[in-house]
Amino acid sequence: TLYRTLQMATPSPALPQQPPSGGIPSAPPPKKPPLNLANKPGEPAFQLKLEPATDIILPWTKGVSSHLDLKITNTTPDPQSYKVKCTDNNIFRVRPPLGFVDPGQTQTIKIFQSSMTLPEANRHFFAIYHKKCTADEAKKQARNIWNQASKPEGVIRLLAVFTSTATPSVVGAIPDEKTEGSKMDAVREAKKEDKKEEKKDEKKEEKKEEKKEEKKEEKKEEKKEEKK
Q: Are the beta carbons of 114 and 187 closer than 8 angstroms?
C-alpha cells in the first residue's frame, strides 16, 4: 500500500553515537581561583623586609621533612616584634613563631613541613605580623607583646607552594616503616620533642624574669635599709 511504501522510503532517524568501550575521559576539574592574600580592610601594610618576599616554596618528598629559611630584616628605626601564623599546625612548624628584631638586624625563622601526602595547591599560606616595641619590651618574652588586645602595625600573607621535583632540604628523614601509620607516629613524636624544647625555653625565660624581679626587690629593700 501507499502508506507502507512511504514508510519504507523514509530513512530512520540517526541513532546517537555510543561512546567507545573505554568511555569518554572525564574533563579535568576546574582550577581553583588564586587565593586572595591581599590585606583586609583596615590592615596596615607590611613595613619590614622579607626574604623570600613572595611565595614560601617548600620541597616535598614522601616520608621526608623539609624546611625553608624565612628572613625578616628590620628596616625601621625602632625595635619590632613579629608573629608568624600558618594555616595548618599538623603540617607546618614555625621556629620561632614569635620574636624580636632590632633596627637594622635580621632574624631567621625556620618553616618546616612534614606532610605525608602532597598538600593541596593554592590552599595554604603564612601570615606575618609585626609591631613596634620598646627596648625594654624587647628584653621580655614576645608572647607578652602579642596578647588578644594587640594590634599589628604591619601584615602580609605569603602563599605556600609545594614542589615534588626539587631536591628536598632534608632536616630529618622519617623512619622507613612498613605502614603509613607508623610514619605518622614518627612525625608526631618529632613534634612532641619540639614542644618539649619550646616549654624548656619558656621556663628559662620565666626564670630569668623571676631573677630580675628578685633583684629589683632586693634593691628596694637595700634602699629602705639605707634610708633607715
A: yes
Residue 181 pLDDT > 70: no
Q: How many CB atoms lie within 10 A of CB 139?
A: 13
Cell of 167: 631536591
Rounded Cα distance, 152 and 128, in Å: 10
The 3-class SS string of the chain reads CHHHHHHHHCCCCCCCCCCCCCCCCCCCCCCCCCCCCCCCCCCCECCCEEECCCCEEEECECCEEEEEEEEEECCCCCCEEEEEEECCCCCEEEECCEEEECCCCEEEEEEEECCCCCCCCCCCEEEEEEEECCCCHHHCCHHHCCCCCCCCCEEEEEEEEEECCCCCCEEEECCCCCCHHHHHHHHHHHHHHHHHHHHHHHHHHHHHHHHHHHHHHHHHHHHHHHHC
Per DSSP, the three-state class of 126 is: strand
- Closest C-alpha to 67, from 142, 155, 126, 120: 126
What is the pLDDT, as a whole number, of residue 62? Answer: 87
Higher pLDDT, 18 or 84: 84
Q: Environment class of residue 54 by beta-carbon count within 10 Å: exposed (0-12), middle (13-18) or buried (19+)?
A: exposed
Query: What is the phi/psi pair of residue 218, to 5°?
Result: -65, -40
pTM of model > 0.70: no
